[in-house]
C-alpha cells in the first residue's frame, strides 16, 4: 500500500494559518500597525478603502528592512523577535510568531515598499497568493509601506462571510483605538475613503484618551496610580455618574498590549459597587506594568488573552487602588470623623438669641375626671390629653379604674381595608396592577402579564406595519437633546441616518455631538436616552446585516417604550393594553423571544397553600 500522509504545500498551509490569524480586515490592520511599532516608528498612517475590503495601506517611518529581509519576512515562522525558546518569557515586542505576513500574502495582493535611513534606494516587492511577482529597487521614503488589496480574493467563502462596510469599519476602528491608546507617544493618522477619521498627535496619556474618546471626557476622568512589587497600575477610571449602559469605553493594557480579562473586569466593577446604577458599566483605561516573565501572552493567535502568574493578587490591588482613588477625589461616600457633633442650623436662625425652654404643668388636671365627654373616639380623648399640660392631684375612685379598662366597641370594617401590601397595588374591576406585572383572573386560574414586555410587543408590531408602508410620524422637541458620541457611534449613526429619519428621528451631528430635534410620536420624552442607548448598542456593537437594520432599530424603540418609568394604570388602560396585546399575531413572546404571558392554574395556586 502507498503512503497516505503527505506534507501540505506552503501556499495551502499559509491559507490555513490565515484562517486563525486573519479573520477580517481588522486583523490585517492590527498585525501591520504592531509591526510598525516594533520597527521603532513614531508616525504611523492608516489608509482604507471600502472598510479595508479594497485597500489597507499602512505607512511608517521606522527603521525599514534590507532587500533580503523584505523577501524573508513573508516566509512562515520568519521573525526577528525570537532567537531562543527562553525569549518567549521575556517578550517586549508586539509580534513574535512570524505568521502574520505569510498569512496575509497568501490571501491578498500585497505590495511592500521599504528603505532604511542610511540607504539611498529602497526595495519594492509584490506578492499574489504567496507568489512573488515583482522584486525591484525603487525610490521611496524612509521606513515601510504595506499595501494590502483585495483581501480574501482567492478564498471566496471567507470573503462572503465579511459583514457590511459599517461593521468592518467599526472593527478596524476598535483595533486602531486600542493600539493608539497603548502608545500615546506615537502620532497616528487614520483615513477612510479619503476622509480623515483620526489625527492623533504624540501626547501624554490623558490627552490621548481625550483625543480618542472626546473633549468632554477630560472632566470625567479620575486618575489611578499604584506601584507595588507585583504590578504598577496607571491610568484613569470614569466618574460613577458618567457610567453607561454599553461597554464601549473599557480598556485594559499590560506592558502596552491590549487584553481582555473578565476576572479583572469584575474587580473594577466591584470597586464601583453602590456608586453606579444596576446594569450600568464604568469607563476605565488601566495600564498594568508587570515583569514579562510573570505573564504568558502566547495563549491565542490574536494575543488578547493573557495568563497571569499572580492574578489573584493583581485583582486585589486593582480593587483597592480604584476604591482609594474614588475616595481620594471625593467620589465615594465617606464618613468625616472630625466634623463637630452638633446640629447644622439654618443660616436665618444663626443670629437669633437662644431662648430657654419653659415647661408648664396644670396641677388641676385629672385624666379620670367624670365630667369628660362620654361620646367621641379614643383618639379624640388622646388628642385632648396630649394638648393638656399636666396631671391633676385628685384622688382616684374605683369607677375611674373601671372606666380606664373599658374597651370601646369597634366599628365593622371592610376586609379589603385590612389587607396591607408591600408595594402600592391598584385593585379595580378585575385587574391587579402591581409594579411591572398585571394580574387578572381567567377560566383556568390567574393570568400574569409582564407589562413592559407587552408594550414592547405592541409597539414593535405597530411600528413594523407602519414602517413598511410609510415613514413613522415624528414629533418636534421643544428643546433639542444633545448627546456626545464616540467615533464609532458617530460613524454608525451617520451610516444609518436615512433609516433613522424614516423611523422619526431628526438629528444633526457636529464634532461628535449629536443634537436630536425630533423623535417618533410613540416614544415618550422620558424614554429618549434609553432608546438612544439601545440603538447605539445595536448598530455600533453588534454585527448586523443590512437587511436586519430596520428590525433592530424598531426593536430599540419598542424596548425603550416598554422600559419607561412604570406607573399604576387605570382599569381602562389595562384593558386596552390586554386587547392590543392579544391582537398581535405573536402575543406570548417579545420580538427577542422573552415570555410575556404566564398562566397560573388553580392547581398551581393550591400547591402554594
Average pLDDT, to the nearest integer?
Answer: 80
Question: Gyration radius, to the nearest Å?
Answer: 35 Å
Distance between the termini: 77 Å
Specify the number of helices. Answer: 19
Beta-strand portion reads 15-25%
CATH first level of the largest domain: which class?
Alpha Beta
Write structural notes for this entry.
The protein is α+β, with helices and mostly antiparallel strands. It has 3 domains: 191 residues, Histidine kinase-like ATPase, C-terminal domain (Heat Shock Protein 90), CATH 3.30.565; 124 residues, Ribosomal Protein S5, domain 2; 162 residues, MutL, C-terminal domain, regulatory subdomain (Ribosomal Protein S8, Chain: A, domain 1, 2-Layer Sandwich). Helix content is 33%, strand content 22%. It has 19 helices and 23 strands. The chain has an 8-stranded mixed beta sheet. Strand 4 and strand 5 form a beta hairpin. Helix 2 runs parallel beside helix 6, helix 6 runs antiparallel to helix 14 and helix 13 packs antiparallel against helix 17. The N and C termini lie far apart (77 Å). About 8% of the residues have low confidence.
In short:
By secondary structure, the protein is of the alpha+beta class. The protein folds into three domains: 191 residues, Histidine kinase-like ATPase, C-terminal domain (Heat Shock Protein 90); 124 residues, Ribosomal Protein S5, domain 2 (2-Layer Sandwich); 162 residues, Ribosomal Protein S8, Chain: A, domain 1, CATH 3.30.1370.100. Helix content is 33%, strand content 22%.
Topology:
Elements: H1 10-21, H2 25-38, E1 43-49, E2 55-60, H3 67-72, H4 100-106, E3 109-115, E4 122-128, E5 131-138, E6 143-149, H5 156-160, H6 165-182, E7 187-192, E8 195-200, H7 205-213, E9 221-227, E10 232-238, E11 250-254, E12 257-259, H8 262-271, E13 284-289, E14 295-296, E15 307-308, H9 311-328, H10 378-387, H11 398-404, H12 415-418, E16 426-428, E17 431-434, E18 437-442, E19 445-450, H13 451-469, E20 474-484, H14 487-495, H15 497-502, E21 506-510, E22 513-520, H16 528-541, H17 549-562, H18 571-583, E23 597-601, H19 602-606
Parallel strand pairs: 1-7, 11-13
Antiparallel strand pairs: 1-2, 2-6, 3-4, 3-6, 4-5, 7-8, 9-10, 10-13, 11-12, 14-15, 16-17, 17-18, 18-19, 19-23, 20-22, 21-22
Amino acid at each position: 500500500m502507498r503512503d497516505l500522509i503527505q506534507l501540505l504545500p506552503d501556499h495551502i498551509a499559509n491559507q490555513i494559518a490565515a484562517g486563525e490569524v486573519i479573520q477580517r480586515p481588522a486583523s490585517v490592520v492590527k498585525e501591520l500597525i504592531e509591526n510598525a511599532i516594533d520597527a521603532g516608528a513614531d508616525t504611523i498612517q492608516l489608509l482604507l478603502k471600502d472598510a479595508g475590503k479594497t485597500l489597507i495601506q499602512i505607512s511608517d517611518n521606522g527603521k525599514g528592512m534590507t532587500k533580503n529581509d523584505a523577501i524573508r519576512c513573508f516566509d512562515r515562522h520568519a521573525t526577528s523577535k525570537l532567537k531562543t525558546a527562553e525569549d518567549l518569557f521575556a517578550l517586549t515586542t508586539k509580534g513574535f510568531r512570524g505568521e502574520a505576513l505569510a498569512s496575509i500574502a497568501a490571501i491578498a495582493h500585497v505590495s511592500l515598499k521599504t528603505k532604511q535611513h542610511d540607504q539611498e534606494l529602497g526595495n519594492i516587492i509584490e506578492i499574489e497568493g504567496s507568489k512573488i511577482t515583482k522584486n525591484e529597487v525603487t525610490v521611496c521614503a524612509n521606513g515601510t509601506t504595506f499595501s494590502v488589496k483585495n483581501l480574501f480574493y482567492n478564498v471566496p467563502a471567507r470573503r462572503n462571510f465579511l459583514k457590511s462596510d459599517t461593521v468592518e469599519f467599526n472593527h478596524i476602528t476598535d483595533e486602531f483605538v486600542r493600539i493608539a491608546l497603548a502608545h500615546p507617544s506615537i502620532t497616528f493618522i487614520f483615513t477612510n475613503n479619503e476622509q480623515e477619521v483620526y489625527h492623533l498627535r504624540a501626547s501624554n496619556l490623558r490627552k490621548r484618551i481625550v483625543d480618542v474618546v472626546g473633549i468632554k471626557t477630560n472632566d470625567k476622568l479620575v486618575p489611578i496610580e499604584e506601584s507595588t512589587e507585583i504590578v504598577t497600575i496607571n491610568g484613569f477610571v470614569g466618574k460613577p455618574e458618567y457610567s453607561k449602559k454599553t461597554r464601549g469605553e473599557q480598556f485594559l493594557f499590560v506592558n502596552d498590549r491590549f487584553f481582555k480579562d473578565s476576572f479583572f473586569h469584575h474587580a473594577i466593577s466591584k470597586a464601583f459597587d453602590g456608586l453606579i446604577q444596576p446594569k450600568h458599566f464604568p469607563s476605565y483605561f488601566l495600564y498594568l506594568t508587570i515583569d514579562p516573565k510573570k505573564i504568558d501572552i502566547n495563549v491565542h493567535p490574536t494575543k488578547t488573552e493573557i495568563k497571569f502568574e499572580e492574578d489573584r493578587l493583581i485583582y486585589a490591588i486593582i480593587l483597592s487602588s480604584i476604591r482609594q482613588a474614588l475616595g481620594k477625589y471625593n467620589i465615594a461616600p465617606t464618613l468625616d470623623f472630625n466634623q463637630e457633633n452638633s446640629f447644622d442650623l439654618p443660616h436665618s436662625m444663626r443670629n437669633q438669641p437662644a431662648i430657654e425652654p419653659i415647661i408648664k404643668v396644670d396641677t388641676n388636671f385629672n385624666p379620670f375626671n367624670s365630667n369628660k365627654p362620654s361620646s367621641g373616639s379614643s383618639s379624640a380623648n388622646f388628642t385632648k390629653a396630649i394638648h393638656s399640660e399636666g396631671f391633676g392631684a385628685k384622688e382616684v375612685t374605683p369607677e375611674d379604674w373601671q372606666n380606664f379598662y373599658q374597651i370601646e366597641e369597634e366599628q365593622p370594617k371592610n376586609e379589603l381595608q385590612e389587607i396591607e401590601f408591600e408595594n402600592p397595588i391598584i385593585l379595580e374591576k378585575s385587574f391587579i396592577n402591581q409594579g411591572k406585572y398585571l394580574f387578572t383572573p381567567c377560566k383556568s386560574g390567574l393570568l400574569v402579564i409582564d407589562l413592559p414586555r407587552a408594550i414592547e410587543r405592541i409597539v414593535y408590531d405597530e411600528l413594523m406595519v407602519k414602517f413598511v408602508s410609510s415613514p413613522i410620524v415624528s414629533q418636534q422637541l421643544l428643546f433639542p437633546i444633545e448627546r456626545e458620541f464616540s467615533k464609532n457611534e458617530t460613524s454608525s449613526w451617520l451610516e444609518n441616518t436615512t433609516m433613522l429619519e424614516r423611523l422619526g428621528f431628526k438629528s444633526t451631528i457636529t464634532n461628535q455631538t449629536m443634537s436630536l430635534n425630533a423623535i417618533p410620536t410613540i416614544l415618550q420624552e422620558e424614554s429618549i436616552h434609553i432608546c438612544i442607548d439601545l440603538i447605539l448598542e445595536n448598530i455600533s456593537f453588534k454585527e448586523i446585516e443590512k437587511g436586519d437594520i430596520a428590525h433592530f432599530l424598531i426593536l430599540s424603540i419598542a424596548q425603550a417604550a416598554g422600559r419607561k418609568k412604570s406607573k399604576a394604570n387605570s382599569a381602562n388602560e389595562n384593558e386596552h393594553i390586554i386587547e392590543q396585546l392579544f391582537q398581535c399575531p405573536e402575543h406570548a413572546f417579545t420580538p427577542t423571544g422573552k415570555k410575556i404571558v404566564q398562566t397560573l392554574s388553580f392547581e398551581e395556586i393550591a400547591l402554594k397553600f
